[in-house]
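TL;DR need structure tokens for one chain.
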Amino acid sequence: MKKYTNTFLNINFMTFFLLFAIFIGCSALFVNIADELSGDDLYHFDMAIIQVVQGSINDLSTRVLTFITNLGSVRGNILLVIVFSILFLIRKRYFSVLFLVIVTISGGYVNHFLKWIFQRERPSLNPLVQENGFSFPSGHSMSSFILYGALMIIATRITKSWPIRLAVYAICLFMILTIGYSRIYLGVHYPSDVIAGYIAGCGLLA
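>> reply
TL;DR here they are.
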């Protein structure tokens, strides 16, 4: 019994240390990007990627990516959280519901606070949709990382089936990356906004 307790405590300590290290790493990366917001290097980095991404604009891609970006909106996230919460409640996964709701709501408030601090204007090169508010960090990217990251964490906890886990991981990663890409394609975010959104979302989940 004592040996089991010591092993459990060691695992918990290792998990805490890993999560703390991820949080510190994400915080450092986010601050590093934020410090470069007005610098030429970051501007040239952003412009180079925007030119490549928006160089492939066509009607079909615009319709598809507009639909996908709407899934990452506040309304889209609320709808998905409600749907998954109902599914988890049916399966009596009450902790999963609580975890999903808390991280998504807190993520929204944190993103709003960060936008208010940095107040970076959105790119005006070639916006394909109309967006209001500030640009840094990307709310769609941050919220998608939090939402789909939370779903990956929940899948890891509630199922031991690796085929199911891998399917969930693949779908969630696809949505995270595609939503972020759509923000650049539609001309409403700089790539650094998207990257910072991912980093902030990762730090919050940790």
